[in-house]
Write a structure and sequence with these properties.
With 166 residues, this protein is α+β, with helices and mostly antiparallel strands. The protein has a single domain, classed as OB fold (Dihydrolipoamide Acetyltransferase, E2P), CATH 2.40.50. The protein is built from 5 helices and 11 strands. It has a 6-stranded mixed β-sheet with strand order 8-1-2-11-10-9, with no helix packed on it. It has a 5-stranded mixed β-sheet with strand order 3-6-7-5-4. The radius of gyration is 17 Å and the shape is globular.
């Protein structure tokens, strides 16, 4: 008779959290990012524009003494002209110790996905380079485009963002 320990039966909180995604919308598409990357959610406020910054960097805001660059994901993904209303949300992210704000159309909920609910991203000419994708998550009739936010905020872009925040 084999004996199982509680450690082999139960999952750690980190294992569960690693499969939790914050769902948000950009246009008609629904995206998801790992919940552990999210520091907080804020309503949209007009950032202070920085000269010579790329279009997708809307500017910076002062968040409790920290200068936070704000990236508009609609502009970044070439999804048309962004509009800002009461549903527009800034997701404050902590990426490798850097704080960055990400403007999205709206945030819906936190979704837990099992490994079998995540499928590899198909290779196709989309606005979003598939290098930035973890895969596609499916829950009932919903499909989430799961974004690897660490890769998306790549070193060259983080350099641009850092120079704006400095």
């Amino acid at each position: 008779m084999t004996q199982t320990t509680a450690a082999t039966v139960t999952e750690t909180a980190d294992d569960i959290a690693a499969r939790e995604f914050l769902a948000f919308t950009l246009g008609k598409e629904e995206y998801g990012i790992h919940i552990l990357k999210v520091q907080e959610l804020r309503g949209y406020e007009e950032p202070t524009r920085i000269a010579n910054a790329p279009d997708f960097i809307k500017g910076v805001v002062n968040l409790r003494g920290i200068i936070v660059p704000i990236v508009d994901m609609r502009i970044k993904f070439h999804l048309g002209t962004p509009t800002y209303d009461q549903f527009t949300v800034v997701i404050i992210l902590n990426i490798n110790g850097r704080v960055v704000g990400m403007v999205v159309d709206s945030v819906s909920d936190v979704i837990t996905l099992t490994p079998d609910q995540v499928k590899p991203a198909p290779e196709m000419g989309t606005a979003l380079n598939t290098d930035y994708l973890i895969g596609l998550g499916t829950v009932d009739q919903r499909m989430l485009i799961l974004v690897d936010i660490d890769k998306l905020m790549s070193s060259s872009e983080m350099g641009l963002i850092d120079s704006v925040a400095a």
